[in-house]
């Protein structure tokens, strides 16, 4: 019995490690399982190596590593550990590439780019000198609201300040799930330590809400932050946005549609411009004009749950919600961050968006791709996450510096 359990454990370990090392995206119904395994194994590689070693010792003491099945299980476990160590070494290469990239841009990466921080407690977001104020209302109860979605948290330094730069974090979750507490923690904590005031917002979710409700809520939150900036010692003239996945899409769309009255019903005169945008692994073209996705197209899911209409029924709405269609010469500075192994939001789509931005925008556009990075790789503390946090912070600080002259 012990040998069988150890074999199952080792087979799963090897499958997860393999998913982290080898990219795959055209795998149909296996996408969610593949993504989860690759995400956890890729970002917690060293922790899993330690766990597998401990589990192996326990099973060895129980006499599980005997016979052909036991030896095969040990071989699978060793192979898993080897791939996990390779994944970690690849993230070190990401760091080295980031340092070179930052040096080219003249960015300050604030000393060591990544360390062992978070190894023992990768999900701990609290930092000394930083506080979080929860569940403020950024507007009246919203139509088709479910679960107190008009709420926003503030993450800021405990020490008083004035005219501090602002970051708004927009969570992901396929426009249907997610919460402000679940994402952006490493970046917000890091920036708050450096004197920023960060906000993390909820917004209405599908299928109860439909596009453009989600971006309307983002605009409402930006207007609320600008109106109440003095309360938090924040600078109303320097508000930046970031988010991952669906939040990356909303980040890009908010940055590219300043003061669009269609997205500001009832508060058309509010100023919703932003100073810079850092979308992580977002979706930028809902029409999939390149035809890359084929049978993996997002359109059936989007049409049923998020747009709640077909593209041919309302092409204006589908185009209005596609960030790549909204790019103009006045787009603010962008840093587009992407993982090369992303199973859900593909890297070549992010590259195309960044290239189009460079062609049209008069402001700086940077594209940073992390080799081996899976979807949601920045959600908790990891080596690669630390690199992404430093990159985003360095970019935002550079924009802040440039606006001060």
Task: Describe the protein in words.
The protein is an alpha/beta fold and 405 residues long. The protein has two domains: 2-105; 130-403, Rossmann fold, CATH 3.40.50.1820. It has helices at residues 2-21, 31-43, 45-61, 67-105, 185-193, 213-227, 246-256, 299-306, 315-320, 347-360, 383-403, and strands spanning 130-137, 151-157, 164-170, 197-201, 234-244, 276-280, 334-339, 365-370. An eight-stranded mixed sheet has the order 1-2-4-3-5-6-7-8, sandwiched between helices. Helix 3 (45-61) packs antiparallel against helix 4 (67-105) and helix 4 runs parallel beside helix 11. It is globular, with a radius of gyration of 22 Å. The chain starts with a helix and ends with a helix.
Number of strands: 8
Gyration radius (Cα, Å) is 22 Å
CATH superfamily of the largest domain: Alpha/Beta hydrolase fold, catalytic domain
Counting helices, strands and paired strands, the structural category is alpha/beta
CATH-level-2 architecture of the largest domain: 3-Layer(aba) Sandwich
Span from first to last CA? 70 Å
